[in-house]
Every structure is written in structure tokens, then in C-alpha cells.
Amino acid sequence: MATINLSFEEMWEKIIACDSAYDGLFYTAVKTTKIYCRPSCKARKPKQVNVTFYLTMPEVEAAGYRPCKRCQPERDRSPQMDLITNVMAFLVEHHKQKLVLPDIAKQTGVSPFYLERLFKQMTAETPRTYLEKIRVDKAAHLLAHSEKTNLEICYEVGFQSPSNFYRAFRRIKQCSPSEYRLMAHTNPKR
Question: Where is the HTH araC/xylS-type domain (predicted)?
């Protein structure tokens, strides 16, 4: 299984946003309750100091945590879901690279047509739109936590052109990168 390289802050942002795009890529374990959840769990959010993140279900269960009864992270485990989770982890880890569907499919050992159809069936989006979302999420994190220019961030997160970056960012975040940075600096909880 592929692993992902997200910082604690990035994972924390995903659980606060209840972002289902990261389900299966990591699990949130709450030290005080000994329960673990998916990133998209709608249960009340714990204090940040009480949270530990694990990348796999066996790892979190070996640490002594039990699954949340609300989001039921242990269900929906099938070979198809494992394949999609591996593809999602691959996309998160390789978001900076120029990726096309045949290359992604080659990594998984299935045909591009089957991969796109299964990915859409399991996630309600295509691998390309998922990759765009990952890139925009990374860009939003950099906009809020760095002083890099929009153009530097555009290329750092894997977009091939500024116009695609601005278009995707506005579609996903409903504002421009500059507007997002301004809001992030005036409202640090965003």
C-alpha cells in the first residue's frame, strides 16, 4: 500500500473540513476516547492536542483504538476500494508530477478505462478532478502558511500553467488564490 506525506497541520485541516477525499488515506485517533475515525467523520471534533494520525487501519488498531460507530471506518473494505485508495495515495504523493490516466493505470495494473470508471463509481469524481483537488488543497495550505508568490505555488503543486491553476482554484475554493490568501491571513481558522 502506498503511503502519503501530509503534515499534521494538513491532516488536521482535512478533518476539520470533513473532507471525504482523504478517507482511507489516514485515520484520526483520539487519545482520550481511544476511538479512530475517517477524515470525513461528522462527529464532534476533538481538541487538537488529543489527536494522533495513523496511515493504516491495522496500525491504528494495533495502537489500541476501536472504530467510530458513527463513520464506521472499518466498513467498505473491498479489493476495489483498496485499489482506489492506492490510486488516491499515489495521486497525493505524486501531485507535483505531470500525470495522465495511462500512467496512473500502469501503476495499478488495470486499464485506463476500468480505472476511470471504477474511480468515478467509488468517489463520484475522476482521477483528474481528484488530482486537481489535491493540488488546490496543497496550494491553499501554501497560500495560508508561506510567503511564496502565487506563480511559485502554481508550479510547486504541479499545475502546468497559471491559467489552469487559477481556473481550478476558483472552481474548487470559490475565490482566487490572492483572495484566499487575504482571507487566510485575516481569519487564521480557514
Answer: 85-183
Could you confirm whether 71 is annotated as catalytic?
yes
Match domain 78-190 to its CATH number in 1.10.10.60, 3.40.50.300, 2.60.120.10, 3.90.78.10. Answer: 1.10.10.60
DSSP of 22-80 = GBTTBEEEETTTTEEE-TT--SPPPPGGGEEEESSHHHHHHTT-EE-TTT-TTS---HH
Residue boundaries of the structural domains of the chain: 8-67, 78-190
Of 18, 71, 154, 175, the catalytic one is 71
Catalytic-residue membership of 41:
yes
68 is catalytic: yes
